[in-house]
Amino acid sequence: MQLKRTPFYILALFTAGLQSLFGFFASFIDGRSSLLYVFGKVAGSLSIVTWVWIGLLLRFNNKSLSTHALTRSLAHFTSFVILSLIWLAIGIMLATQAVHECSTKTLWCTAASFSTALAFLTSTFSEIAALLIWLGSKRTGAGLSVNVAQINCRMLDYDA
């Protein structure tokens, strides 16, 4: 049984949506760290861009007869690789500031830590989605140029 990629699209979308709330919440922290204010706003803003983009990719996810550029496996694979790297970097940025907030053990520690965890989860789900796209398109024999809706179809050998 092979894993489906769509649940990981939805999980990345869900964690990015939560990050919109907690990233902006973390940006209003007036605590011990000097950069959490900036990093929280960056995380909140990029999370909106992330869930809009993943929503667009989901819209073109099952259009097997379409020739639109967003139906190609390459577009989905590249998008999720870029998203995973961006969210890994944001998670590291937030984690460096959560240490300062957690030294006082306040509510701000919880917000910063949860925002950090969401960033790492978004990165992880994006990595898994990219991996499943790559493995599925490799299995078709056409590579990343194949339509993303057709990557679960196996190439059949036959005599013509």
Strand runs, count? 0
Shape: elongated
Order of helices and strands: HHHH
- Taking all Cα atoms into account, the compactness measure Rg is 19 Å
Low-pLDDT sequence parts: none
User: Total domains, how many?
Assistant: 1
Structural class: mainly alpha
| Major sheet size, sense and barrel closure | none
> What is the helix content?
55-70%
Strand coverage percent: under 5%
Overall description:
The chain has 160 residues and is an all-alpha fold. The chain has one domain (6-150). Helices cover 69% and strands 0% of the residues. The chain has 4 helices and no strands. The longest helix has 34 residues, at 107-140. It is elongated and about 55 Å long. The protein starts with 5 loop residues before the first helix and ends in a 20-residue tail after the last helix. The chain crosses the membrane at residues 7-29, 35-58, 79-99, 111-135. Keywords: Membrane, Transmembrane, Transmembrane helix. This is MARVEL domain-containing protein.
